Amino acid sequence: MAQKKLTYNQAISEIEEILAKMENEELDVDELSDKVKRVSELVRFCRSKLKNTEEEVEKVLKEMEE
Q1: How far, in Å, CA of 62 to CA of 19, rounded?
Q2: What is the distance between the alpha carbons of residues 46 and 54, in angstroms, rounded to a whole number?
Q3: Does residue 1 fall inside a structural domain?
Q4: Which of 12, 11, 31, 9 is nearest to 21 (CA)?
Q5: Domain count along the chain
Q6: CA-CA distance, 3 to 19, in Å (whole number)?
Q7: Using H for helix, E for strand and C for coil, what is the string for 41-59?
Q8: Whole-structure pTM over 0.90, yes or no?
Q9: Does residue 2 lie in a domain region?
């Protein structure tokens, strides 16, 4: 089964969900390490998406100036 491609909004939602569970102390010690790693992966994904989007927008704007 093909896995659905993660979107920026899905990543942000997952980060918020994990952080809410951490703040409400809903995660046990066994889950905490895995969730922290997952948040780290999601943050890297979001940063990459933002950087790529910024580069694409700058390219389009530069092309419009020509």
Answers
A1: 39
A2: 12
A3: no
A4: 31
A5: 1
A6: 24
A7: HHHHHHHHHHHHHHHHHHH
A8: no
A9: no
Provide the terminal-to-terminal Cα distance of the chain, rounded to the nearest Å: 45
Whether 19 maps to a domain, the answer reads yes
Angle, in degrees to the nearest 10, between helices 8-23 and 29-65: 150
* Residue 38 contacts residue 14 (beta carbons within 8 Å): yes
Only one residue has tokens 């905490």, namely 32
User: What domain range includes position 34?
Assistant: 8-65
Residue 3 is assigned to a structural domain of this protein: no
pLDDT digits (tens, 9 = 90+) for 36-58: 999 999 999 999 999 999 999 99
CA distances from 5 to 8, 17, 45, 50 (A): 10, 19, 12, 16
Residue type, 63: E
The one-character DSSP state at 28 is -
Place of tokens 């896995």: 3
